[in-house]
Amino acid sequence: MALLHMCIDAELSIIVGHMNYQKRTTAQRDSDGVQTFCMQHHIPFELRYQEEPCHSNFQAFARKKRYEFFYELLIKYKAKGVLVAHQLDDHLETYLMQQEKGLIPQTYGLCEQIEIFHCPIIRPLLAYTKSELEAYCKRHHVPFWIDESNMSDEYRRNQIRHTVIAHLSASDKHKLKEEIAQKNHIHQCCQKEAEAFLSTWSYDCDSLLKQSSKLQEYILQAWIYDVCHKHISKKELNTILTLLHQPQNQYRLIDNCFELRKEYGLLSLSDGKQESYSYTLDHIEYLSTPYFSLCDKGTVIEGVTLSKHDFPITIRSYQSGDAITLRFGTKKLNRWFIDRKIPSQKRKLWPVMVNAEGKVIFAAKIGCDIEHFSNNPSVFVLK
Fold first, then answer.
1. Are 221 and 104 in contact (CB under 8 A)?
2. Which residues pair with 360 in a beta bridge?
3. Same domain, 205 and 146
4. Quick check: is 173 in a domain?
5. 105 cis-preceded (ω within 30 degrees of 0)
6. Number of domains, the chain
7. In this model, does residue 28 exceed pLDDT 70?
């Protein structure tokens, strides 16, 4: 309500969006109060009753539904962004929760500007304490209501609010705010270094481990977040780094669904799903795919000579059991991968050509079988 009054005072063109979760008996009181205030000041008011059942963490569920609602309003009114009234106490609580969980977040505490679920979010009140905003409302005769659920200790944030934040003086709060600002400055410098490293990194373990221990953490955290969209704890990062220092190949499951692998000195990170592809052609055509290209030029080992009996040909990803007949006998592709220390993640997408009979006649980097070799290849397959 303090923020709303400040917006009116600044003569901003605004719309008010209110989400009623119907979780407490006084929720309708709040909705009615805000709506009445908006009517008195001729401000467009949008009310949404959340009636979808929640089957998981309610706070995460409520946050998602709230911002989905805000995004709808952004589109409907062609608005530039969403102003939310998080204040200094919220900022400090978030920081203390991050510290407790041992996370390396994108930002310590709350960002003044951020995008959440496609919504540009601005938090203009982070310099004010909750008590200062209450005093503002009383001074300007702005009505406000207390959310009684904030009084309980059901959520960890409330526990920190009551046992830590409530006992800090105004001076203590501003000192903690400065600590967060300094930490964010160092944090941003490390993030930039990590981004610079990742921009040229070829996923080799040795170059990662040559960085400072602090930068190693930031690089891993940034890389994992880019792939998994998950922040992991410092404890988990240390466990991963311990594994990476071991000479053997290593495997680690992250967040119960992402696979981190160290194989032959290279690192890979995937969601564990078996990606595959298959392209079937009735005739020779030059094309480019994310996995291979068919061209009219290439090296000897990339060439294959096809006859009309080979069609339709299929170029697909490697499958377990694939083998090809070479001059010196039949070679299993899996054995070739092992001999050349090809990581399993790369093996999954290795291009293999089979003819109409389903026989493997070509494999990338190995070449074609003896029946399909000539000095005038029909086509070249480039991995």
1. yes
2. 354
3. no
4. no
5. no
6. 3
7. yes
pLDDT digits (tens, 9 = 90+) for 300-349: 999 999 999 999 999 999 998 999 999 888 999 999 998 888 888 788 89
Q: How far is CA 220 from CA 98, 129, 169, 247, in A?
A: 18, 35, 38, 18
Which amino acid is it at 68? E
Residue 180 forms part of a structural domain: no
> 87: buried, middle or exposed (CB in 10 Å: 19+, 13-18, 0-12)?
buried
Domain that holds residue 243: 187-270
For residue 155, the 8-state DSSP code is S
| Whether residue 62 is found in the same domain as residue 198 | no
- Structure tokens, 302: 């990339």
Give residues with Cβ within 8 angstroms of 153, minimum separation 6.
Answer: 159, 162
- pLDDT for 227: 83
The model's pTM is 0.64
Closest-CA residue to 255 (of 238, 218, 230): 230
Write down which residue in 240, 270, 300 finishes a domain: 270
Q: Under 8 Å CB-to-CB from 58, ≥6 apart: which residues? A: 23
In a domain, 198, yes or no: yes
Question: Does pLDDT of 272 surpass 80?
Answer: no
Q: Are residues 24 and 154 in the same domain?
A: yes
Q: Is residue 179 situated within a structural domain?
A: no
Mean pLDDT across the stretch 286-291? 92
Question: Which tokens go with 120?
Answer: 């540009």
Q: How far is CA 62 from CA 16, 50, 113, 229, 299, in A?
A: 18, 9, 21, 19, 58
Reduce the DSSP state of residue 380 to 3 states and report it: strand
Same domain (yes/no): 341, 195: no
Pairing type for strands 45-49 and 16-20 reads parallel
Average pLDDT estimate for 49-73: 87
pLDDT for position 315: 97
Give the mean pLDDT of 250-279.
84
Whose tokens are 């400090």? That residue is 92
| Domain finish residue from 270, 287, 317 | 270
